[in-house]
Amino acid sequence: MAYEEILYVVADRIATITLNRPGRLNAWTPVMAEEVRGAMESAAGDAAVRVIVLTGAGRGFCAGADMAALGDAATQGVSALTGVMTVEQGVSALTGTRRKAELDDRNDQSVRDDFRKRYSYFPAIPKPIIAAVNGPAAGLGLLLALFCDLRLASTKAGFSTAFSRRGLIAEHGISWILPRIVGLSAALDLLFSARMVDAEEALRMGLVDKVFPEEGLMEGVLTYATHLATLVSPRSLRVMKKQIYDAQFQTLAEATDAADAEMLLSVQSEDFKEGVAHFVEKREPAFTGK
Question: How far is 55 from 19, CA to CA, in rounded Å?
Answer without folding.
Answer: 6
